[in-house]
User: Fold this.
Amino acid sequence: MIETLNLTKKFGTKIAVNKLNLDVGKGELFGFLGPNAAGKTTTIKLLTGLLKPTEGLVKIFGYDIQKDYIKVKSRLSYIPDVPYLYEKLTAREFLRFVSEIYLIDGKDTEKKIEGFLEFFSLREYENILIEEYSHGMHQKVVIIAALIHNPDIIIVDEPMVGLDPKTTKLVKDIFKNSSKNGKTIFMSTHTLSLAEEICGRICIIDNGNLIAIGTLEELRKKSGIDGRLEEIFLKLT
Ligand SMILES: Nc1ncnc2c1ncn2[C@@H]1O[C@H](COP(=O)(O)OP(=O)(O)OP(=O)(O)O)[C@@H](O)[C@H]1O
Ligand SMILES: [Mg+2]
Assistant:
């Protein structure tokens, strides 16, 4: 579903992502970890087509993301680390707008939006301008906007920052259920306990280079540490 071939991104002389080869399959909940400035966000922006590789290639559903952008985008979602929303719209208006972009059948739209707003406890705020929302409420709207077209791949950069425990649990369950239903989730996070809990495979990068990839058990073997992901991560990075 997601494939990178020698994926490389340079900013001037800085190599942010260095010859990265990844292959993430259908139904995987894939954790993408690394210290600050490791190249996670850059990789994610390359995967979503927002950045052009310096060298190498990203294939999503087998399509080159740089060439078949529209084909890919209709089945993919990106939840960025810093959400940008149209602040002068209400949540309901914004979600209607996103639904129209994805050409969701108008009859279903309102019901779908209401269902999501209810699920994320946003119903009482649905007619208030987004500029009045708290950080967590912004994040919830971004997450709904990413789910509304029922994408096959969800790429998410630091999903839980600023979410309260109840919402964190909701999002965790959405990711777990989505992956059970054959959706692919590519998630970068610093919350190692989260990665440990929900990810099938985990990839660790540092300085743009792939350091380790595999299940927790495989990472334990590679690092020689039979313990928590935190210890393994600290040793490997
Ligand atoms: N637009 C840019 N121009 C120049 N350098 C950049 C740019 N974007 C990222 N970088 C550099 O690329 C490297 C990787 O940054 P990136 O944002 O991908 O890291 P990250 O792993 O997401 O870090 P964090 O955990 O802090 O979010 C850093 O050294 C950063 O300074
Ligand atoms: Mg980042």
Notes: The chain has nine helices and ten strands. The chain has a mean pLDDT of 93. The domain at 1-75+153-165+182-237 is CATH 3.40.50.300 (Rossmann fold).
